[in-house]
Protein 1
Amino acid sequence: MSFGVIITALLALLLLGYFIGRKRSITLSKERSQKLHSLPQYYGYLIAFWSSVPALLILLFWAALESSFIISAIVTQLPMHLQQLSTDEIGLFINEIINLSNSGLIAEDEVKRQAVSRYNELTEFSTSIKSAIVFILAFVGMFVALSFVKPEMKARNLVERLIRWAMIGCASIAVLTTIGIIFSVIFESIIFFKTVNVFDFLFGTHWSPQEAIREDQIGGSGSFGALPLFVGTLLISFIALVIAVPLGLMSAIYLSEYSSPSFRSFAKPILEMLAGIPTVVYGFFAALTVAPFIRDLGESFNLSLSSESALAAGIVMGVMIIPFVSSLSDDVISAVPQSMRDGSYAMGATKSETIKQVIIPAALPGIVSGVLLAASRAIGETMIVVMAAGLSANLTFNPLEAVTTVTVQMVTLLTGDQEFDSAKTLAAFALGLGLFLTTLVLNIISLYIVRKYREQYE
Amino acid sequence: MTGNTTEIIKLKLAKRYAKEKRFKLYGISAIAVSIAFLLSLLINISVTGLPAFQQTYINIEVDIDSKLLKLDSQYSEQELFRANYSKVIKQSLKTMFPGVKGRKQKRALRQLVSKSAIYQLRDFVIDNPSVINTRQSLWFLARDDVDVFMKGGIDRSLPESDRRLKDFQLVWVDKLLAENRLEKRFNVSFFTESDSREPEQAGIKGAMIGSLLTMLVTMLLSFPIGVSAAIYLEEFAPKNNKWVDLIEININNLAAVPSIVFGLLGLAVFIGLFGVPRSVPLIGGLVLTLMTLPTIIITSRAALKAVPPSIREAALGLGASRVQTTFHHVVPAAMPGILTGTIIGMAQALGETAPLLMIGMVAFIADVPQGITDPSTVLPVQIYLWSDSPERAFTERTSAAIMVLLGFLIVMNFLAVIMRKKFEKKW
């Protein structure tokens, strides 16, 4: 039975369970002329839950693990010389088997034919066992739950407890996601750091993972000195901040202190549109329009610019993060108590003097945290740099040259066709770990500052 | 003494006022610069993208000769399907331009029409077998170079070696133009075809369906999960509980984690551990769900918080349980805000590219995906792929695809604004 059929059947059981449960509670209360503790639909919900949800969970769990079990079962049955192949060669072999099985073609090779038939057997076996378990569980759940239905049963409380646990489960997905991220980057990074020294990775100045494509190549280990990537990332992010901080901050000051409400309600959404434009659009714009423009501009001053200069990517990224600086700054500037402004005006200060000497210092923690958030955005930004920055790792602080970034390298390392366990893909996870930790620290500092600051004026 | 101070202040006053004016000017120019950048981006994309909504067609007198097709007087359907249509088109072009000599020129002549002409002719003949051995005047897609020329993308004054169309090709094109055999029409195939290596045949249908399926998965998962999480945290979570604090810290953090990291998670956990196939809308939807959850949770919580406590107290006072109060009164009242947040989250997910690159949605896929487990690509990734293509004609298609994507985003955001304005209650 296919996955879709089982799901549909379970949904049908869910509905059926609801009506049976409801009906049963009403009949029982009439038979025993006893008042029901809860409204009849709560009994229905309860039966519906037990007759489908546990079965559904088992089904999903089974489906998630099924393929890896079947594959390992096939691999252990293979002849020895095949089992000793590397992981990716086995992976290719398994893929071939699965394709053969799906297409219904008959393999020429005896080993493959056996593997295909074994694969088919196992899949069929697994499917029948799975359907059997799921439906037994569903019906047992339904009947056991039905046998518990009594008029004095506190169905509503039970249903509410279930709802509450379901909600806790949903909320906990956030924690699970973080754990998932940490584990997925850490495990691969540990494997990576077994072959590449941590210090060589962090402080090495030579990055050329391309050499590691073929294992039998001379110097095949590649070199993974990530310092040029870190410098490139910092350089582009710095350019972005140089653009975004003054523009964002001045916009926020103008909007919150000077502008009329009507101008504000017009300009603020437009500024926020900058954050809503997909980054791939910015990347295209940077590569197609801004970079050639800057190159031509540079040429007119007799500067030789790379068409993938850090400057172009940085400027476009800076525009993208303007809203991150401006909206948070706007919030904190508005949160500065009016009494502080009034005090300053009473001393005879002009508006700009008040802003520069009273409001900005008072709002500084909030502004700093906005800048930090924007910086973390810039460091983690991918598409703009993938499309507009270079690929060659260049250790330079010159914004007119092409540099590459951590995210660019992650994309180039992982979008090719290569085996999952090669040093190249592992390096991408190590870079991901670095990226995650950096942005995490920036976010935590920024959130901490915001929280501290809020307490100050509350 | 007092008079002296006043004097000093008065002297400085003009300077201070000037400073004040300058400061205000900085503010307004910062806004102006930002808006100018936005406008130049939008205008630039529109100017490059608009031509892509038109496509050049070429009119050819086709001799549908059964000899050239290599068909006998009796033919089966399969023979008709496999007949040599390319030869027919080649021959028809030769008759239209007699005197074309040399391999290079002959090849160039064939390349006036798109490769799709062969299939178009085939379908035409199969639908109307009576046209065999007649002469038909048919319109075919022109090759991308001709199309670029028609849209003014090729400058005649350039030296021949710098042009995609050589002098002899320009002569042909001029002849076709003089005979009214070249025409620009609305580019339907841009919306009805999928990706192709040939720019003139490439369309966004596959990517749009892929995006739709991915968004469907994302929506079906992130809406219930996000809203339940928000309801729990806002209405039920005990205060000063370690687990609840941990959840809140995590949500705030995840909102600022770079999207590419979610791609790594998808690659390592969903593909590596659970064996979800690569490149399919299912995995894309799973990854985007995790990415949009924080947005949905945070906005839904704000919407729930805006429902005044009096509503809850009234319901509780009438004997409703807390779950009943929440689901019968608080959540319906907060629904407009929750839906607004969801739409904004979806818009974010629709424009997201980086994590999808990590999970293999960058493959070249010329088929329209039929379900959530078919390999597919999405609109932003299609944009990325096209922007990498060297052909000139892909540039305008990239911009056109961007316009379509921005169109969807504008509609979604507009919907969100309307919802907020129309249904949000002011308590």
Note: The mean pLDDT of chain B is 88.
Protein 2
Amino acid sequence: MRVGWLLLLLVWSTLSQAAIDPYGFRDDAERARFQALTRELRCPKCQNQDLADSNAPIAGDLRREIQRLMAAGRSDEEIIALLEQRYGEFIRYRPPFEGRTLLLWLLPGLALLAGAGLLLVLTRRRRPEQTLSDAERQRLAQLQAEEEP
Amino acid sequence: MRRRLLLCLPLLAFLVLAGLLFRGLHRDPQALPSALVGQPFPAFSLPGVQDERLFTRQDLLGRPALVNVWGTWCVACREEHPVLTRLKAEGVVIHGINYKDDNASARRWLAEFHDPYQLDIRDDEGRLGLDLGVYGAPETFLIDARGVVRYRHVGVVDQRVWDADLGPRYRALVATP
């Protein structure tokens, strides 16, 4: 009797496994490719989640579509281009590097450089004059001599 | 003088940033620019809601029309329905794509309320929806007589949306085909 229950539980556990991963991948490389692609693309409905994370029905549809395209032998670039055609550039977390996106890509680096430059200028300017002229040195010695009893 | 200008720089940078952020406050982050505007309506071959006769892209051509993506599971579609019905009464051509729905419920919906659609297309699996870049119903596309998508509205079509966005564009297309 107990063995029967255990067997039943065992069967159930494989069912829950199937609910998590319904896609039939040929090998681990294909699975890794799928995971990389779904992390690279944004869900159009819940906009701060990638396709791998999102529970929205549309994200499920798109995951299935990606799997279908992979099974049809399309390359990663082709799959991203196909989805971009339908959902726009928005779907890519990493927009392409081109004239229009130049500012987007370069601004953080430029801001860092500008900040570093500013810091350099300010610290240079503040450094006080440390060397004394001969006349000043003489006067200092005189003053110190006067102070001593 | 130059020094004073330099001192104003942080204030200036702050004002620019504040301006950008202020503008961002008033924009709808859910509204995506459609990739399909200016592109031909995707090809399809799908059965109808009422019968199994296949519809294709050819059936949409010939005159400007609204293509409305809807489903009985979509609460906002219920809100939109009376507006579409009124638009139909005014002579606006509207086609319906029943998106990822149960066919029996869809038929009941159309019988129970009113059917504002010229063509009732059934997209069970959401393949056409995928080609259209649909990410939430209701969505409404405006196509011209040659089947080119001219405008897309995501969300409920109410009187305000019709008066401000869809209506003028539709009338312009009808006036100059």
Note: Chain A touches chain B at residues 44-45, 47, 57-58, 61-62, 65, 84-90 (CB under 8 Å).
Protein 3
Amino acid sequence: MQFEYSIEGGNFSRAGYASSEVKKKLKQLNVDLQVIKRVVVALYEAEVNVVAHAYNGRMEVEIDKDKIKLALVDSGPGIPDIDKAMEEGYSTATPEVREMGFGAGMGLPNIKKNVDVLTINSVVGKGTTVQMITYI
Amino acid sequence: MKVSDLIKELGLKVFAGAGGLDRDIDGGYVSDLLSDVMGNADTGMVWITLQTHKNVMAIASLKDLAAVILVKGLRPDADMAAQGDIEGIPVLGSDDQTFDVAGRLYGLIKK
């Protein structure tokens, strides 16, 4: 089963909408609750990253018998140093975004903790693709 | 303990989400960093914060939290309150500061 949602860069009033829709789908499919809890953390963080940093993007979800594959594909500034971005506490979020309680440098570490496989590909000036796999 | 019991015990205001007043409370989490709550809070917790925007409710819903308590007399933004009603997650308020609200909540839950 595959589905896709679009994500609008900069629009915080819709941040979390796509993650919430995927959560509903996973519940309908009777996916184990502990798996849903982990997937939701990773998805939300990845969605907020697109909203906070990119111009626009999409969330692709593929659910198989044995795994959930998630991809966040955006057009945006890209990540110059992915290792640095993975460090807890490092963030390039704007002061406005930080004031909302985002941008604490916990997003990517949260994702890493909550999926089985995390792959990040980024081209500066073009965009970023974050792929995540969780085995059921 | 249910959210409605907590409201009585702590004298909290109910701004929104009255449909969720019989949710069960299993614990509490105190943070104003949204990713911290996303990563570490758990189902059934009450979230004490000073953040008053709509994204608080997105997290409360994704994490299946029992309720949100705003401290120091803060009020939710209109779209946060509206989202609380849609999700049926109570948005509550206290005039006290975080330390006092958390201390009283802890006393109620852990006894």
Note: The longest helix of chain B spans residues 98-110.
Protein 4
Amino acid sequence: MNPSRALCVAALLAALPAAAAERRFALVVGDTRGGAGTRPLKYAERDARRIFGILTRIGGVREEDARLLTSASADDVRAALGELTERLAQAKGQETVLFVYYSGHAKDGDLRLGDSRMPLSELRDALKDAPADVRIGLLDSCQSGVIMRSKGVRPAPAFDVQQVQAASTRPRGLVLIASSSADEESQESDEIGASFFTHYLASGLLGDADASGDGKVTLAEAYAYAYARTVGETADTRAGAQHPVYLYDLGGAGDVVLTELAPARGGLVFPAADEGVYVVLDGSRKAVAEVAKARGDQRRLALAPGSYLVKKRDGDSLLLGDFSVSEEPVEVADARLTRRPLSDDPQKGASGPRWSLLGAGGGQFFFDAAARNGLFPPAALAGVELASRDDLGHDLTWGMDFSLGGGSSNLQLPGVAPIPERFGELGGGVSLWRDFGLSDSVTVSLGARIAFIYLARNFPGHPELPSQNFFTLTPGLTTALSWHFTNRLSAVVRGRVNYLFYNVDQSQNLGYAELALGVDYAFGL
Amino acid sequence: MRSACSALLLLCAVACGNLSNEDVAFIEAIPQKDELHVVVPQGDTAQPACAIASADIAISARTTGNAINSGVDGILGLVDAIRAVPPTTRDTDSRTWGPFHDDKHPGVDVQVTMMRELDAKLVPWRWIYVIAARRKPADFLPIVEGEFFGAQARDGSGRVTLHFENSRTLQINQPTDPNFPARIYYDLTGNPRTVSLDLTSGQGFGLVGFDYGYAGYADGHGRFDYAIPQSNGCLLEVSAWFTPQGAGKLTYRALCPLNLIYGDITQCFDVSACITYVNDPFAFTAQCNGLKPCLLGNPASCPALP
């Protein structure tokens, strides 16, 4: 029997719901750094956050029993494991499950956490010895199948259905699942914004692996689903097919339910009448789940509340639709999707513009001390910037901004008493920049801007002095650091450096900087 | 490289405006009308019945001061034009405004030039400005010539020559303007600030020829030297001191026909412009009824003045 099919059968026959008295613990580790000789991974931390979110939302793991480590050292992982082990010991008398998930580098039999290392055998032994009834290790890293070679642990091709049927007690033991075999690379995908294995594992846990349709995703279902999708989707990659492997050493009856879909409200429902592969994207156009279904099956993804874009390839075109998930399930029927050409694939950054509006406040400062005297004093500015992402190309954004500001100062002239002045400023410009994702939630952007600036000043208490003004164009550079703290909202620190040509009193080449803090709101996610 | 130059040229082309610290410095060197005004305290507006008589000589200080102020305003009003328009040309130490049309006088073009000199510390110490006007195709004629010492007019000193002979030629004069150059000297560097109008060459502004002088103190009191004609043919040359409230003390002498001179005669007056004390050894004052020496009122009623 095909391993994945065997897993599905096992799940259908023997899945038992998590007992009410069961208590679950989780250690989730993500690290993009592998130390010397490795290239940083792009999505390891995002993968960890996804799994952490799923386990704590629908996986039965309470927040206080879950630990998420990113950019941590091996000692940090040991300490977290030790702490959870203590908590497990304190939970004696309850049915307990321990999850350990790792996404990152592994090489030569070690997990690589930055410059520190943790032998896979050490992790295996820690899991083996942990005082939990069920210990589940999920490793998404290159050559992670090495852990299966460890002494005393027997790799198995699939769940032993007979064993499950014959047993009469709850499952107990150790399960290890690795994203690739001992001599394979685990691959990441820019298109889905994740590693293949974790992406399909997450999709399965969210509901697409629920082959039985009972609203529960078991360990066997999740593995079977992740195995099939990972092998299938990596078959044509340059690195070749990636084969997840698992080691199953569970005694007792039944399977372990990893996620329960029923307690989660809302979510997306894919009706039985439609078929195909649906990809669900979040606001940053990164895949959060997939559904691969045949006609006649209904699928439900237990997604967190938020806005999502669903795409489905249909022949030579795409079907796209925006959906907002809240309290009630939302049906994703093909009829509700809009047909678009393949060139509009949102995962290739061509889904059309994604608009956002930034409100920001800050200040402006001219570098030249003489220019700051009266002509261009430091000013406070507030403004808005409308931006369109991916309109001109993937990760390319153009924006249009306006700002108002001003202040007061004293004009110092030789031999003349200080002359008070009030000034106002109106500015605006167009920018083009490129976004660079530092992590799942942090983006740095760098680009160019051409702006106009209009300044006006008057002199209170000096009616003899006429008001003055100045207008010019100022080219410059713009950069920003954004932290996406919700699906739609980001905190932004923006800096600009501009050149200004001043020609009234004398011709001068001036430079000035603007620094602003703001909040960006993304539309149409 | 070529595109970079083109971009720079574009920036030069679109940079425009009058944002200029130096323009402010030039304008601050031109005296304002109110800085050259004679300020005579007005006192109480309602005058009760006076015990001795109304202080008509003191009251005439106000009308004389107002006449001088009107004359100064008429000429320095031209300066307002340069406050309304930015300089036409800017050099390091000079500015030119115009020529531009004078809205108040159709057919007349006005041009203003200012130059400055800086000391070793680059602080302006001397300013020279000329306001000239013309009716095309004639050449420009100077209407106002000024010289100023200091960095800003409000606390410097200088002189302004008002070329009424030219304003008359250009037909932009007021009917009461003199037809000869009049000079204003001012010193705003200390306390008091002084302004004098040299009309010794003849009549103007409805005033007789005289070297009018005014000293105004920061606390509001002041002194005004002026001359007023009398219906009997005499000319009174007056030196009056005023309190900030409008009371005061004046001394005058009367220059009468047949070279008769009476003086000095002293009067004190209260804020209602009523005479409170007269010391007239010549009984020139009508209320003396010809009795010499004539003492009227109480000398203690005179305000304490320098």
Note: Residues 3-14+21-260 of chain A form a domain with the Rossmann fold fold (CATH 3.40.50.1460).
